Amino acid sequence: MKVAAIVIGAGHAGLAMSRCLSERSIDHVVIERGEIANSWRTERWDSLRLLTPNWQRRLPGCTYEGDDPHGFATMPEVIAFVERYARLIAPPVETHTRVTSVRRAEAGYFVATTRGDWQCRTVVLATGACNIACVPRLAEAVPAAIRTLTPMRYRHPGELEHGGVLVVGAAATGIQLASEIHRSGRPVTLAVGEHIRAPRTYRGRDIQWWMDAAGVLDQRYDEVDDIGRARRVPSLQLVGSPEHATIDLNALREIGVQLAGRLVGLSGGKAWFSGSLRNQCALSDLKLGRLLDAFDRWATDRGLDAELAAPHRFAPTVVDEKPPLSRDLAPRNIRTIIWASGYRPDLSWLEVPVLDRKGRIRHDGGIVDAPGMYLMGMPFLRRRKSALIDGAAADARDLSDHLASYLAG
Prior knowledge:
Blueprint: E1 2-8, H1 12-23, E2 28-31, H2 38-42, H3 75-89, E3 93-94, E4 99-105, E5 108-113, E6 116-125, E7 132-133, E8 147-149, E9 165-168, H4 172-183, E10 188-191, E11 201-202, E12 205-206, H5 207-213, H6 227-231, H7 249-254, E13 258-260, E14 263-267, E15 270-273, H8 277-301, E16 326-328, E17 336-339, E18 343-344, E19 363-364, E20 367-368, E21 373-375, H9 392-408
Parallel strand pairs: 1-2, 1-6, 2-3, 6-21, 8-17, 9-10, 9-17, 10-13
Antiparallel strand pairs: 4-5, 5-6, 7-18, 11-12, 14-15, 15-16, 19-20
């Protein structure tokens, strides 16, 4: 079977690209390993909500139409939104079709799947950035008696053994799981490395309102000094909740979560932590202050101060005088470890030589280092918001423009 373009992945990014290709009358097919919005259906924990407000659910030709624009969608609501979008745009989707290989062909690419093979001139990789949970190598030393999980397998605290839980990683996922699990009655230790502190609201507006209005989310990949570093920055410490709650390290400490430094080893029946907790927290507090300073300047320059609450600053992160450097791997202390240490894409089927030595795709703003190949849905792909639902529209328009020009020769 032959088409001009194949989009791999029918999540929000792949569907946004499909809409833009259809607008340009480009013959294409979308290949999806499961159902539409498969990752939202199968790889998220029960209580998860989007970290962005409902008004940011914007895709090409579709916006949020509910009565709670400032609320945060549950996973069933996200799935329903993506399904509704698919019905609206009627993409040419082949569901329950797994790609087994993508390789170069004389006139473009050969895409092998579990339900037949395709030939195309262009390929869009829209399978997402969160296909595989990153588990550090030191996990190999976890004793057999300790249960380990990733956020992709965790569903709710009730499935955990009673006893202590170690959550490794303090970005958005780690702080949410630490809070939920500790409130279930299981003592939690949170191993904290690099993190980005952020309040849910500032001066009466959601932090995402500030990021959107002040242009932070629209910052382009070619406007930053070190885009490689920017793409590796952890996600903001945010949680979407009906209460619009801020969950940062101070909030976790107040409910009894034990904060420790970065996990550096497992040996002698113990988990070992670095002594960097205080420095990591101080650096995160400093970055938060700079961000709020930028928001204040932006508001003043536009004469908005009278419409907003007064500027203020948040208390520094409180760190124990002597943070723990180790914890016993025993039921009372640690009986379960959850690796909230990030994600990476699954590109095991990609047989085109476009990966660097660390396994990352070489690309320039989503234009892959292979003729006619494109990338969607990755952190800071073309804009700071690229990995958000709200970022797919602009990226899809840009990249579909380039793809159309490529097809035109």
